[in-house]
Specification:
- The complex is a heterodimer of chains A (161) and B (392).
- Chain A has helices at residues 3-12, 18-25, 29-41, 79-86, 112-123; strands at 62-70, 91-96, 103-109, 129-136, 142-143, 146-147.
- Chain A is an alpha+beta fold.
- In chain A, strands 2-3-1-4 form a four-stranded antiparallel beta sheet.
- In chain A, a hairpin with a 2-residue loop joins strand 5 and strand 6.
- The longest helix of chain A is centred in the N-terminal third of the chain and has 13 residues, at 29-41.
- The two termini of chain A are 36 Å apart.
- Chain B is of the alpha/beta class.
- Chain B has two domains: 6-46 and 290-390, Aspartate Aminotransferase, domain 1, CATH 3.90.1150.10; 49-287, Aspartate Aminotransferase, domain 2.
- In chain B, 41% of the residues lie in helices and 12% in strands.
- Chain B contains 13 helices and twelve strands.
- In chain B, the strands form three sheets. Chain B has a seven-stranded mixed beta sheet, sandwiched between helices. In chain B, strands 9-12-11 form a three-stranded antiparallel beta sheet.
- In chain B, strand 5 (167-172), helix 8 (185-195) and strand 6 form a beta-alpha-beta unit.
- In chain B, helix 3 packs across helix 10 (274-286), helix 5 (101-113) crosses helix 9 and helix 12 crosses helix 13.
- The longest helix of chain B has 24 residues, at 288-311.
- Chain B is globular.
- The termini of chain B are far apart.
- Classes of the chains: A alpha+beta (161), B alpha/beta (392).
- Chains A and B meet through helix 2 of A and helix 2 and helix 11 of B.
Chain lengths: 161, 392
């Protein structure tokens, strides 16, 4: 049975239950449950998240993307440096990149100042860091395949066909 | 002088056509707030962006004039390639007419062949337009009742019983709206065998041809020996690529027939919308993957909704095509109309009564699964409540 198909369904909607997925795929619930459990145990399914458009709430939140040039550590490449960054709660994502810089970080804070200070005080002074460039996100249009600004509504006409 | 009554001047055939019974039900639904509908026979997806963008690009380039009457040559050529690739059908651009939706192709075919007094065999339950269009073209529609025990498929015996010397045209509405039934190659061969040696033409409405869920792909009767020369295939972009509003379809037929259809189309329509044709060109040449994605999604919902109805105690066979299922509601003791009316009034859920698609649809309801799983769950919960309320 195809694990990928189950994972793709959960990737789109993590609220689907094993029972739902079993019906959708024409499989037994136990079979689907076993696959989901195994994927969790093997670290394939690493979490569940809901997508929230915070702009529509009262919560203050700014997001920044930080480009980092760093010096890799002998014998451990970039992994150790990345680990030093991703331990911070403020750091939401860390990617090793190809191209003109090495690491891309996504950082969240209450306001611009908080984020800027975090970069200046916590990231930039690290030994391995050669340079940083901070880009603030002004507006999210789409994230992880979900449109942020367009409410989906069904405006199909009532027709026979 | 008595007041002039324009209504009295209308075509008698038109005025005598039965008004659509569903209309009334949907008018009630339209006036209600918070109706949960499983009634709409249109994809809930919107046209994939690359296809929409091709339409926009054609406008930017100023492609705002008529195309050739039969449609853009590139589009007809691409349609021929598509038919070969997807269904193994061998046609060239000279066999293809681009129409305003599959509906126009159906109308043209009726008008091109029907002479006064001809008969058109229309299997039912089926899409509501065949009988009325045949009648308007001057024919007598002969309805053949498809039966649940035959899987709502046309059997050679039922066809033979309906054939007369006046039969001009057989409508083959598969994959079927509203039952979701399909005809396999072997089943079509049995029908073809009845037709060989007769003068009967076939109008094969294959608008749902891309939406089948069996291992074998959809088979067109035109691919069977001796059938190509007597078949007009009606197809379109609406269901396969979620392009309903673009109003674009096609007729595929022998060259001489295509010339006649094109003549008629030229007088009535001039040509299909230019923007839509450019978008369709993109759909055919780069949209196979979109079809697969949407079909996969429909398939999930199909399994989900069929199990849902069976769990409710309403017998529902697993349909092989289109995006409808056709559960049997006769165990409730209500007729289809009553079931749908009360379900709407009491639980605000809109389904279409099966008899709207022909008498043999009585005792069933048409359920569209062109809706999200979440929406389907909500509707099923409401239907459950309604069924519970029927138990004294």
């Amino acid at each position: 049975m195809n694990d990928i198909e189950i994972l793709e369904l959960l990737d789109k909607d993590s609220a689907l239950t094993a029972a739902d997925i079993a019906v959708m795929l024409g499989k037994s619930e136990d079979e689907v449950k076993a696959i989901i459990d195994r994927c969790k145990a093997e670290g394939i399914i690493v979490g569940n998240k809901v997508m929230i458009n915070w702009r529509k709430t009262d919560r203050e939140l700014v997001t920044a993307l930080i480009e980092l040039k760093v010096t890799p550590q002998f014998g451990r490449g970039f992994d150790q440096i990345a680990e030093r960054f991703y331990q911070y709660d403020q750091v939401k994502s860390v990617y090793l990149m190809s191209g003109t810089y090495d690491l891309a970080l996504q950082i969240e804070g209450k306001n611009l100042n908080e984020v800027a200070l975090f970069v200046a005080e916590k990231l930039a002074p690290m030994e391995a860091v050669v340079s940083t460039a901070t880009h603030f996100v002004l507006k999210k249009y789409k994230e992880d395949g979900i449109m942020f600004e367009e409410a989906e509504k069904d405006d199909r006409q009532v027709m026979l066909f | 002088m008595k007041p002039f009554d324009p209504k009295a001047q209308l075509n008698d055939v038109l005025t005598s056509l039965p008004p659509s019974g569903i209309r009334k039900l949907f008018d009630i639904a339209a006036g209600m707030d918070g109706v949960i509908s499983l009634g709409i026979g249109e994809p809930d997806f919107i046209t994939p962006w690359h296809i929409r963008n091709a339409g926009i690009h054609s406008l930017e380039k100023g492609r705002t004039q008529y195309t050739a009457n039969a449609g853009l040559k590139e589009l007809r050529a691409e349609t021929a390639r598509y038919l070969r690739r997807r269904f193994g059908l061998e046609y060239g651009p000279e066999n293809i007419l681009i129409t305003v939706g599959g509906s126009e192709a159906i109308d043209l075919t009726m008008r091109a062949f029907i002479r006064p007094g001809d008969e058109v065999i229309v299997p039912q339950p089926s899409f509501v337009c065949y009988g009325p269009l045949a009648a308007l073209a001057g024919a007598r529609p002969v309805y053949v009742e498809l039966k649940p025990e035959d899987g709502f498929k046309l059997t050679p015996d039922a066809l033979k019983a309906a054939l007369t010397p006046r039969t001009k045209l057989l409508v083959l509405p598969f994959p079927n709206n509203p039952t979701g039934s399909i005809m396999t190659a072997a089943e079509l061969e049995a029908i073809a065998e009845v037709l060989r040696g007769t003068d009967v033409m076939v109008l094969s409405d294959e608008i749902y041809g891309e939406l089948t869920y069996t291992e074998a792909r959809h088979v067109s009767i035109a691919s069977l020996p001796g059938m190509k020369e007597r078949t007009v295939i009606v197809g379109g972009f609406s269901k396969a690529y979620a392009m309903t509003g673009w109003r674009l379809g096609y007729a595929v037929s022998p060259v001489e027939v295509n010339a006649a259809l094109t003549k008629l189309h030229q007088y009535a329509i001039m040509c299909a919308p230019t923007t839509s044709q450019y978008a369709a060109l993109e759909a055919l040449s780069a949209g196979d993957n979109d079809i697969e994605e949407m079909k996969r999604e429909y398939n999930y919902r199909r399994r989900f909704i069929v199990k849902g109805f069976n769990d409710l105690g309403l017998n529902c066979v697993m349909p092989d095509g289109a995006f409808y299922c056709f559960p049997d509601i006769s165990s409730t003791g209500l007729c289809s109309d009553e079931f749908c009316r009360r379900l709407l009034e009491e639980q605000k859920i809109a389904l279409v009564p099966g008899n709207a698609f022909g008498r043999s649809g009585e005792g069933h309801v048409r359920v569209s699964y062109a809706y999200s799983i979440e929406h389907i769950k909500l509707a099923l919960a409401g239907i459950q409540k309604f069924l519970d309320s029927l138990i004294p």
